[in-house]
Design brief:
heterodimer; A: 119 residues; mainly alpha; B: 409 residues; alpha/beta; Rossmann fold; eight-stranded mixed β-sheet; 14 helices; globular
């Protein structure tokens, strides 16, 4: 780091004002925040790997500078964006299913169905 | 999107563009591949939350929250606060909120990392571009407005005013480089879609209007005022804000973008008597600013605009729509989210004010008031177009209302 500000300390600083918590258990929400930060970093790695693959496909040299300077074409950018959307949809599956459960209304459990099938 | 060309090169893709389309002016921080990828993820998270998760909150409200309230109380909801309190008990609202807050905080962290690791070079660049330039007038002893001092707006550590080191511009550089992720690119390459929309609206509404002097109050880093300076290159344009880092970055940024007819002044916009004479401006503009003031200063700001306007001059305030009977209580409660959970403390109160009545209190007549609506003007080849976009990210969408007045000569 060449900076007079220490980003290790400052980048993640708390903003002024009491933080609101939303889930029933604050510890679950802390774990959610850590999980989503990790998801972000997985997405970053995935995009980096995609960049390396595309540089190789183009027959370009793969170097740190080439990776940092990579410019996807519009079509490539759309493909990469779809990959990111797909990734988010995959990790937030449980929320999607919560939504579908609202739509479905009251449903029988497998046990209840089993009881009925045996009656 | 109806057009087969445009940003949808892939017919399956309808979403935000890659971060690499941002406009890189001379003050823009450098970004590594992974820093860009981080912004891309956050952009898509915001898009996912507004298009895939938030609709679930509306569905939960209809299916669970409203029926439960009706069953328990036998009465309809009295106001938006009752709706919001009822929503806070529903898991869909809780998870959407927890994810939205988490994404906001990650966006701040991502932008702060980018700008803070290169603080010395950013700060040196800003100093070189602004030192001894009379277009930057700072007032180091100025008392901060209450609303700025008490809380860091929208989870932005240090808000608009903090300098971590003398001459620090990493705060505004973070705001400038990260807002793309918050809005999903809806504000365009230079985050100027709002200002461009206002300039377009003014040119269409007042085709003969030739302002000589334009004042932007609460200008921040100037992204909303540069389009006005560019649309009226013969005008003298002045941006006023309380945050010194914003103004320092704002002038440096404007100069590298080749916009020379704008200056930046640090002051409390509720009292500009020592700076500007009566009837000295043709146009006074505020864009997404009133919600960051307070009950005490808003009437003073309105009175100042009245005092400062030349006859035939216009004042325009651009904001998200006010709450009124035409907006459902559910929508009002959702729009209030930023007030309660994203450190926009005055957002809720501001949006229930009868702005026309307050303008009249400040001396504007019924015959002088005007209203309009604008949506961000962006390069539709590359960016999502808020006017054509039917998704709703309550309070965040790049489409706004205009409340203003034209001072009768």
């Amino acid at each position: 780091m060449t900076s007079s500000i220490d980003p290790f300390l400052q980048a993640g600083a708390k903003s002024k004002g009491a933080r609101p918590w939303f889930l029933k258990d604050g510890d679950v929400e802390r774990v959610l925040n850590i999980t989503m930060a990790l998801a972000q970093e997985v997405s970053v790695l995935r995009e980096r790997l995609d960049t390396v693959e595309r540089l190789l496909e183009r027959g370009d040299t793969v170097s740190k500078a080439a990776i940092d300077g990579f410019e996807p074409t519009r079509e490539e950018a759309a493909e990469r964006a779809l990959t990111t959307q797909e990734f988010i949809a995959r990790i937030l599956r449980v929320i999607q299913q919560d939504r579908e459960a609202i739509e479905a209304g009251e449903e029988m459990t497998s046990e209840q169905v089993g009881d009925q099938l045996a009656s | 999107m109806a057009d087969g060309e445009g940003r949808n090169a892939s017919p399956d893709y309808d979403g935000p563009p890659d971060y690499r389309v941002v406009g890189r002016h001379g003050m823009f921080p450098e970004t590594t591949h992974d820093e860009i990828a981080r912004f891309n993820f956050l952009t898509h998270m915001n898009r996912h939350l507004s298009t895939r998760v938030m609709p679930g909150v509306a569905e939960a409200f209809e299916a669970r929250v409203a029926p439960k309230h009706a069953q328990e109380t036998g009465k309809p909801f009295a106001d938006r606060h009752e709706v919001r309190r009822a929503l806070t008990g529903d898991p869909m609202w809780q998870w959407w909120s927890a994810l939205r807050r988490s994404t906001m905080e990650s966006r701040q962290q991502a932008g702060r990392w980018v700008t803070q690791r290169q603080a010395d070079s950013l700060n040196a660049k800003a100093r070189e571009l602004t030192e001894n330039d009379p277009r930057l007038k700072l007032n180091p002893g100025m008392k901060l407005p209450r609303g700025v001092e008490m809380i860091d707006h929208h989870c932005m550590p240090g808000s608009y005013h903090t300098e971590l080191v003398p001459g620090d511009v990493t705060g505004p550089a973070n705001y400038d480089s990260g807002i793309f992720a918050t809005t999903g690119g809806m504000l365009g390459r230079f985050n100027d879609g709002g200002g461009m929309a206002v300039a377009k609206w003014v040119k269409e509404t007042f085709p003969d209007f030739k302002p000589k002097r334009i004042l932007d109050i609460g200008c921040g880093l100037g992204h909303n005022v540069l389009p006005l300076a560019e649309a009226f290159p013969d005008a003298e344009v002045i941006g006023v804000d309380a945050g010194a880092p914003m103004l320092r970055y704002g002038l440096a940024r404007a100069k590298t973008l080749g916009v020379e007819n704008v200056s930046f002044v640090q002051a409390d916009v509720s009292d500009l008597k020592d700076l500007f004479e009566d009837e000295s401006f043709d146009w006074i503009q505020s864009t997404m600013f009133l919600h960051e003031t307070c009950y005490e200063t808003m009437p003073k700001i309105f009175a100042e605009t009245r005092r400062l306007l030349k006859p035939d001059g216009i004042v325009l305030h651009v904001e998200q729509p006010q709450y009124d009977a035409s907006m459902t209580l559910f929508e009002q409660a959702m729009r209030d989210w930023d007030a309660f959970y994203n450190a926009e403390p005055f957002w809720s109160k501001m949006h229930e004010i009868d702005l026309d009545a307050w303008m009249k209190e400040a001396g504007f007549g019924d015959n002088e008031l005007m209203h309009g609506a604008v949506a961000a003007v962006v390069d539709k080849e590359v960016f999502p177009d808020a006017a054509d976009d039917d998704s709703e990210d309550f309070g965040r969408k790049a489409a706004w209302h205009v409340v203003g007045a034209k001072k009768v000569a």
